[in-house]
Amino acid sequence: MFAFIVRRIIQAIIVMLVISLVGFSIQHTIGDPVRDLVGERVTPAEREVIRDKLGLNDPFYIQYARFVKNACRGNLGLSFFYKKPALEVIVSKAPATLELVIVTAIILIVICIPAGIYAAIYPKSWFSRIVMAISTIGVAIPVFLTAIALIYLFGVELNWLPSYGRGETINLWGWESGFFTWDGLKHLVLPSISLSSIMLPLFIRLVRAEMMEILETEYIKFAWAKGLHRQRVWFVHAFKNTLLPVITVFGAQLGILFAFTLLTETVFQWQGMGFMFLEAVERSDTSLLVAYLVVVGVIFVFVNTVVDIVYGFVNPMVRIAGTK
Amino acid sequence: MKAWNRFKNSYLLYSFKRDPIAILSFSVLSVLVVLGMLAPVVAPYNTYDTATFDIMDAETPPSWMEGGSQTFMLGTDIQGRDLLSTMIYGLRVSILIGVGAVLFQAFVGILIGLLSGYLGGKLDAFLMRITDIQFSIPYLIVAIFTGAIFKLAFGVGRYAELAVPLLIVIIGISHWPIYARTVRASVLGEKNKEYVEAARVIGISRWQIMFRHILPNTLTAVLVISTIQVAEAVMSEAALSFLGLGMPITKPSLGSLIRSGFEYIFSGSWWITFFPGVLLVVFILVILLLGDWLRDVLNPKLYKG
Asked: Is this prediction's ipTM beyond 0.90?
């Protein structure tokens, strides 16, 4: 087990080095730190002096080593636009994205599990048929179209809900939260519904498929034969066993959910990490872009490594398969 | 003629004729593809020629609404272009990028999958590690990052000029691992079969065995994922264009048309977003339905990737 953990961690470090190398090459070839510092109105001779001072004329590998050393200390360079450390800018935008993902996850759980169970228990009812039809079509609808439709309906025509920004937020120990004001919650409704719309079809189908499969198993038949109450069979015996695959897939899909926040945040001008990233692209803010790349890389590598190690604990097959 | 007869008696055609959803999706898809490919002939106006439209016509509503004009059936977009023509041209761009990206990713993925599966050993371990790593990052993130990097590297003007080939490369790069894995899995299944052994015994070179003997037997799996991948590629292209990392508004795809319409939705011009949106959804939906049908017919055991 120990060897397995060490192997996974070494692998994670290698992946991070590759990502940082990609990030650094981007900064090295596209970015211009001198421009970021002094602007355009400085003579070439003076620029050369500054370049020398900053060590920008050193060989590539020395600069890369410096970049990695700084990154390990949490210094990912200065954002050209914000005039602040890039990491600080990203951290200040993170709560918005996290809140969006949390509310989306709650919506997914509240809708998918009952709908999926119902569709599995009564596969022939009209409600199940409608749910399945919508989830077939839903796969083909891009998230930004759902978002625009919601904005047009509830924001423009009916004027019930705000359609952009985060509204009023409260600073809670440095966490800008929209959870505790009525205005902030109202602003969360449309973005989180749009974001959940991409995962809804998948999860309803998944819960339904798992549940139907389990309802066919021997032990459920035995439970019926024993004369247990319907609700006990469905919700205690059957449902409990659908949870494991559902949770596994849910964990894997969280990353994809995160990717789609980029689109949702753009539509709703949601001041999160994704919106910041696209603004950085528009402004050619290279160091912020690279910092975002590295931060996202760290998050994905970290989550994957932890998940793999947990799997290793739970399922010895994983550990053995890796060794051979 | 012989091939036609074989096709006529095949299970593929038989099950196609018995599936109304497949027939419907196939007809809609054919109509859309023909429309898109014949855009210069079919479209009422040439929307790439700035001389044919006038900014004064901008945001004309569809012809059946108040203020609409008979010359523009579905109204005009923000630059005064006929929306119907712009959509047909946009559909063409989306199809070109979708198919191009799939060809690109299939080429890269098949090559890597074949080498990895047939040669095995260290090369296999190395290549599969790379696919594993890329698999752990959502393809959309890869596509958006690559797009952003290309946009910065080429500059906004150059990027807009080269948008079609660049988007093909970007989407191809972000999706190839699925081909590599699928092909590798089928190669592993094929390579110990007797015909491969026979080929090896009579002294055919490795490359010939790989490309002439094994590759054709992996193509069913490739065909099945390709249909779904075209839909994925069209969706990725729309998403990238919507984020401003795709086609410029002078040569819009459906995604960039939706993006440009979205800015005007608050003033009530819903049609610029609505019609391209519906067209995009229908296009993706028919490909997905056809892909599902094809998967069920060709390989009931293959898991939807």
From this structure: no
